[in-house]
Design a protein that fits this description.
- The protein is mainly alpha-helical and 128 residues long.
- Helix content is 84%, strand content 0%.
- The chain has one domain.
- It is globular.
Length: 128
Amino acid sequence: MKNKQFIALLYGWIVVLGLIIITSIILALFLRFTSLNEPTLSWITLTIGLISLFLGGLVAGVKGKSKGWIIGGFIGIGFTIFVLSIQYIGYQQLFSLEQSAHHLGYLIAAVVGGILGVNAVVPNRDNT
């Protein structure tokens, strides 16, 4: 059972990181070739992050089929630790208050996605 949860967690992290990387490339192209500005980009990246973590939690919940809030929590915490480690290694800075609020939102989005993912799975009611 624990192996199944771990595999679900891996699927969720892969979805989150895949979506973040793909949308980062798209946003970089928009920044380069359009007049997209910083304040707009800030809101776009927040929205993309929330959607990515929600979908990662959803996929992990569907794969895990139980304990969606725990799986979603691990998705959110794993993403936060990943971002914090990159920021600390690259810039020698911890999260600001605004970043902490964003990551709390990311955690909540992943937990809600995990809960909905578990409940989206219809149990097999085959009586044969």
